[in-house]
Design a protein that fits this description.
The complex is a heterodimer of chains A (about 300) and B (about 375). Chain A is mainly α. Chain A contains 14 helices and two strands. Chain A has a domain of about 220 residues. Chain B is built from 15 helices and two strands. The chains are: A mainly alpha (about 300), B mainly alpha (about 375).
Amino acid sequence: MLKTIFESLFTMKFLLSIVRLSTPILLASIAAFISSSTGIVNIAIESIMTFSALAGILGSYITQNAYLGCLIGMLVGILTALLIAFFSMKMGADAIFVGIALNTFADSLAIFFLYQIAGEKGTSASLMTPVLPAVEIPGISSIPILGQIVSGQYLLTYLCWIILIVLYILVYKTPLGMRMRACGLNADAAKTAGINVQRLQVLSLILSGFFASLGGMYLSLNYLKIFSKGMVAGQGWMGIAANGIANGNYGALLISSLIFAAFRAVSIVFNTSTIFPTDLVGTIPYFAVFVFVTAASIINYYRIKHGKVEEQ
Amino acid sequence: MPDTKKEREARNMLSITNSKVFDTIKILISICIAFIITFVILCLISEDPVNALVTILTGPFRKTRYLGSIIESFIAYAFAGLAAGILFKSGAFNLGAEGIFIISGVSVAAVACNPITTNPFLHSALCILAGALTGGILMIIPSFLKAKFGTNEMVVSLMLNSIYSGISMFIIRNYLLTTTTNTVGSKDYLETAKIGYLYEPLRISACLILLIVCTVVLYIIMYKTKLGYQIRLAGSNPKFSEYSGINSFKLALITSAIAGVLAGMGAACQLLTQTSFYQPDKSLTGIGFSGMLLSMLGRNNPIGIVISAFLIKYLEQGTQVLYFVDRAVPSEIVAIVEGIVILLISSQYFLRGFREKKLLQEGLKKDA
């Protein structure tokens, strides 16, 4: 029994499930990355994902067009990010408290709107919703292993991959990206150098909302094909955790997101057997994040203590 | 004014926007704006919006039973708010109250299901103690990691929430599982563990007294003792408090332990008055998170938190009364009121221009 489980960890199916599970975490992690690169702490990623997941489904139901639904979801994500920008920059509220508030009543608010349209409080299963397709890339799909990974993924997964590349170029290779990172490193110095810090911070929040909205809609419009209460299940926070571990390093960001996705996949594989208690298996991904985040901070602590890196 | 003289001076010197009158006006205006927006939403979704708003506001007074249900159910939320309040006040973003509620519930249920003693008072007290101890010990974990290694306590505490709820389900399923129903829940509590009513019609129980005592004690600790002053100082200016010789590591542990104890007691109160057996995925979910919102509503002041817990439960009861009449309005509408009020009162610049104009006018009058 144990043998078959461990064998299933080294199959193609398992690798594919990591790819499928990694998309929302990757999107959440770059959402956290881009906002923290200009020095803004956006902890509302979880709630933006929830709002956009719902807005995508409801928009797609109302317009009967998945692409229009996707557009509406993006708008909702960006508007939520702008709400954070408005309250933290124009109204002088603490961005962290705005985020905590948004995260806490995100579920209630989502259920309120779901109830208005679907008449149900749990899921959108009763709504006939067009969803975004999976895409077969002709030519590549016939290559063994690589073809299976690269072809046949959901549309938003491809969008995610493109964004990962574009974002890297934007942040590390363009003047705009340099300016954004300058704001994050030292806002006062950036201001002295003639950079409009606030404008860049708003821009980074908008991008953050956009990425998080895609992550949310991947869950609703692609992966599960419905909206259900609590479906984001901490994936926004996994993105924030990955960003915390990476500490500004883009490669480490992607790797830690993939590791978290792998632990989600492991927990799903373990859940199919009866020898492990399902309640504890369900906590594996969260436990992994807990261990990684704690370990990263302990390592960092000793490096500072021994003078290998300077304290920020 | 409950503050010390020194602090009052420091506050007057540092900021002029911090007047109590201005704060009260700001809160009242925020509430008015929230209700105006709610009314607009009601106009969109309900056929009789005026009646709907009136029902939300006055519904709970229609029956003593409704008031009793508010008094009974707001206690756990108030405890959660107090726990979040002391953490936020000390500058800690420990969001672990949700998980602490759920895992403390396991300890409470374990004590409540076992015939430890036949004395009802002692048994209930032991249940509350079990919850408080579990909460106090487990709440320290994220704060310890933060204070010692600088770990991101928000992420860690949220992950612990999910881990604790998994562990709670595991313990209940394997060691305390009920044999009478099919749900994942504990055995029924023994009669000696349950907390009865002191005044039946309004459902006033010993838990209410416990809450009042805790609130008063917490208020005294926060505003009348050295410890409270240190906590507030660490929250408002961590660097300054560190340089003035306060041991921030020890302070973080004490603060989180107090918060955990409060959360554990809240879990015990909720379980022993409202339920007859414990379901980890139902009985206590959402209370810890609501506590954070209540803490923001009450501006981290213990008395403010308890009042806002009562008011929010009042509104929820009002929407439930409305739900009997008008199925179009779900009780989640309270979240909208709550959200708007929280966002507005945590905005420092909201109405600031208005206040500055007033100050300027007064200043000019004095000169003339």
